[in-house]
Amino acid sequence: MLVTSKTRTYTRLQSVVFTLLFLAVIGVLAYLSTRYSITADWTANNRNTLSEASSELLKQLDGPITITSYATEDESVRRAVSELVDRYRRYKTDLTLQFVNPDLEPETVRALGIRVNGELRVEYQKREENLQNLSEQGLTNILQRLARSGERWLVFIEGHGERKPQSVANHDLGQWSQQLTAKGFKVQTHNLVQNPQLPENTQVLVLAGPQTDLLPGEVAMITQYVAGGGNLLWLTDPPEDKNHYGLVPLATQLGVDFEPGMVVDPTTQVLGISDPRFALVADYPGHAITRNFDALTLFPQSHGLIITPPDGWQARIILQTEKRSWSELGDMSDSFQFDAANDIPGPLTLGVALTRALSVDDSEPPQEQRIVVTGDGDFLSNAYLGNGANLLLGMNIVNWLANDDQLINIPVKTATDRNLQLSSLAQGMIGFGFLFVLPLLLASSGFLIWWKRRKR
Fold first, then answer.
1. Which of 156, 161, 288, 327 is the most buried (most CB within 10 A)?
2. 3-state DSSP helix/strand/coil percent for the chain, to nearest 5?
3. How far apart are CA 87 and CA 76, in angstroms?
4. What's the CA gap between 118 and 77, in Å, rounded?
5. What is the domain class of 52-145 according to CATH?
6. Domain chopping of the chain, boundaries
7. pLDDT per residue over 236-265, tens digit each?
8. Residue 456: is its pLDDT beyond 70?
9. What is the pTM of this model?
């Protein structure tokens, strides 16, 4: 091509236009980067992104959230706090974060009980709480607690061999109680013989499988509590007799009866459980407690329920065994075979939720009394709480009973890829590659380039 002054001018003009357009594009991208952000999380379980449960909780929180971090000028601490809080701010724009140097305000630090560098003070709707553990689980739990409009007291009846909420024994409820406390519930026990009046702050009364008969006066106090509109969780177990530990008046009041025998479910053998007295629940009728619930729950040594709701009550089945199950009426020491002449075929009801509209003044919003009765209490015990989704089911039941429907089904995700486990062979191959193979490749490529240039 013939190069003339005209072509040179044209080429220079092209270069100038290209440079200007390139700088303009870079400027536009730089401007857009200050207005918008794009993030990508490539960890196996999206560890650096909020779980769906946490983001759903943020959507339910009305009003601003203020987080104050009492951190020194240490950049690593402040960066860790900012990275955690920024995940929440992507879903809630009125969440603000501010830093306070604790060295400059020692009196405030002492008054608020700040003990850890970087500790958070979370404020929502004039309620405040401190967070020392910088994690999504910790911060989401605090937001759940602050979202509750008031204290939620769970009162466990004691004095008759019931499952204890503070004990670590296999049949007790210590681990479940810890989870309830972490979610903002207050747990206490109450002996009706020592104090015949239930606490006024009782949000949910819990009957956790008594082993001896309650006195008639105690039963009368419980039935009076229910008649007055109190919420109740009744964890029943297969009784040794038809007296149901003196609680027949309560069962009659609620329209609840119990299938004789114990539930047998051969489906559990497919999962490697040799004891067929473990009942499996995989399908859940539609209810707020089991909304979007698609996980298995396991119930050891349970019995079926029969529900005939009294006038004014609405009953909904929430737990039901598989069709292959049955209620065994024979000797439980023998091999389990369904006897159509004697045994009760499944599916059997393992959990029922009862509701009743309470009469209130026209000026007040309508209120609803809520009661849950289950045919097993072992599923929440320390020994079986970790099986399937037993813990999540127990939390959903209590949230529903406490009228916290919006907090149901909000578990916090856990990371699955915190540790990288390499076998000895893999470690050896990586070490050999970096020490010998990679240097050899670099040396070979250098030699090849030198050889080709030398031959020119």
1. 327
2. 35, 20, 45
3. 17
4. 6
5. alpha beta
6. 52-145, 150-407
7. 988 766 778 899 999 999 999 999 989 998
8. no
9. 0.70
